[in-house]
Amino acid sequence: MNKSKWFIPLIAVSIIILSGCSSSIPELNYTPAEQYSLDKYLYSVDLTRIKNDKAYVHLHCPGLNQDTVIFHFPKTIPGTYKELDYGEMIDSIEPKDHDGNLLSVEKIGKNIFQITGARDLTMIHYWVDDTWDHPKAMKRIWPMGGTNIEKDENFVINASGWFGFFDGLELVPIQVSLTQSEGMRAFTALPVESKFENTIVFNARDYHQLIDCPIMVSESDTATFMVANTKVYIETYFNGEEYGYADLIKKEIQPSMEAVATFTDSLPVDEYHFIMYIRDGREFMKTLQSKEVGIITKAKTAIKNVTLFGMGALEHGNSSFYALTDFGDSSYTSMIKRVALHEFMHIFTPLNLHSEYIGEFDYVNPKMSKHLWLYEGITEYFAYLIQVQSGLITPLDFFAEQMGGKIRRASRYPETKIPFTEMSERVFEKKYGRHYYQVYQRGALMGLLLDIEIIRLTNGKKTLKDIVLELASKYGPNQSFDEETFFDEFTSLVHPELRQWFADYVEGTIPLDIEGGLSQIGVEYSKKGKHQVPKRILKDYGSKEHRLSFGKYKKVKKVGKKDPIGFKVGDKIDTDKIREKFYDENGFPMQEGTDVKITVKRDDKIIELPYALELKKRKYSHRLRILKDLTDSQQNYYSVWIGNKK
Ligand SMILES: [Zn+2]
């Protein structure tokens, strides 16, 4: 899973609100008889008949032959690491016998329905409400794991919010039949059984596969391309007027997908679907940035449109689902580039490498694995490693910007108090769940430092990627590794000393040795100090930037009296380009007096303003630089790390 920075304040709020809701599972006081079985769940939904923003679901399920039947909806689903309680979206449930007589039903838990006198249970009917615009559920269930009902426009069918299962019968095949309006199509990785007129029938191997394959029904805006052996589909829906988002997104994603193909010989999937719902946030952003609109109106607009900030993505075996917002700038495309790669990399872990807690996922009483360092941390690290190894980003960008940023954000979490494995296992509890975000920060740093440690311990013969690919090909999607002995197994493929590394940094509370680790590959890390650096071209001369500048551009709000460059109000400055001119490729500042040209976008024209670089002594924290004179061992390890294996 991954969520953009936009989402963080919203999540912080939702976790606080919801912490009291953690519910215990009721005792199920029934004993299924031996012949408890079902050939197939037969689900059908007519999406053309929506009432009060709800859809009517029909389940045909004859032959259970039980006095009491328990019908569940998931408490949570894989990849979300949070209690979601999908059962709360189910309304007016009606179990019926062969003749259509209503059977007695009681809701005995947030997600559990108990049907009694059920010997002749033949069908269940109920209404499904969607989570996206539900006042309670929209705060609890992130949009990428939620459901959407927009009549004649768009349906997001994450099965957890639409379809239930009988106790213990998660492995029974499921057929889902959807009737949709003229011109609508269904986008999913789920195999299609048949199509007749406006009804499409899908077959899922079992409930797990159904959960693993979200379906989006909407008009068609798609693009495809091949990466090595994998056909990639981009399937988008935009709730504004325009079409053509799929092609736009293809341009963003294709280079990183091609980089993945160089990371490994072949990809473990034949096809992969990026399914995306894109909201139109352009008007909203215009209001927020407008000079004519007062602060109170802005605040009200922000609160009313808070869902627009809920961007994120959830990974699945052959697909990933995205909820995004186009604010009319580059922020969502740069997010797609970053997040799509992260979600795609999940095909290695956990999808092809996981413990029994994920392999045999328990939707009723889920147990969390302690190996989030692997599922999320390593995935996040690999998403950046691929970019630097394939030249999509520079080594300096990788270290100083990306990893430097992660070090900074990781420092806010209680590293010396809560072991990472303990946070993982107990992530459903408030005390631990609030620290979940560090999986993308400290987790990714663990990936980097573990990679370096493996290179050191094997003297450059192996990398983290080698070990993960070896394990993923040993286990694959259908076999689980042992939750308890995994650190030992991992260690046995590297060097006995590695076990202590896991014990100290992942199972223990010893702070990561960032300085020592990075120095092995010739990268210098300094936690804090003072140094001579280029002046900040706005702030240090009394100029000001707009607070609501999105993307990489800084917009000049006020020009300071001491400004030596000649800025004008409204100038847009590309901050990435400035960094490239002020520092060399290793991250050391250029000499004072160096002539540089500041590139500025003024009235939609690009102009260049001359500037003689000035330095200033400033405090720093978490500085990373690439050393220029490396020892033989540093040179050797660095070239193995960057992918130039001997
Ligand atoms: Zn993830």
TrEMBL record:
It comes from marine metagenome. InterPro entries: Peptidase_M4/M1_CTD_sf (IPR027268), Peptidase_M61_catalytic (IPR007963), Peptidase_M61_N (IPR040756). This is Peptidase M61 catalytic domain-containing protein. Residues 339-446 form the Peptidase M61 catalytic domain. Residues 43-218 form the Peptidase M61 N-terminal domain. Coiled coil: none annotated.
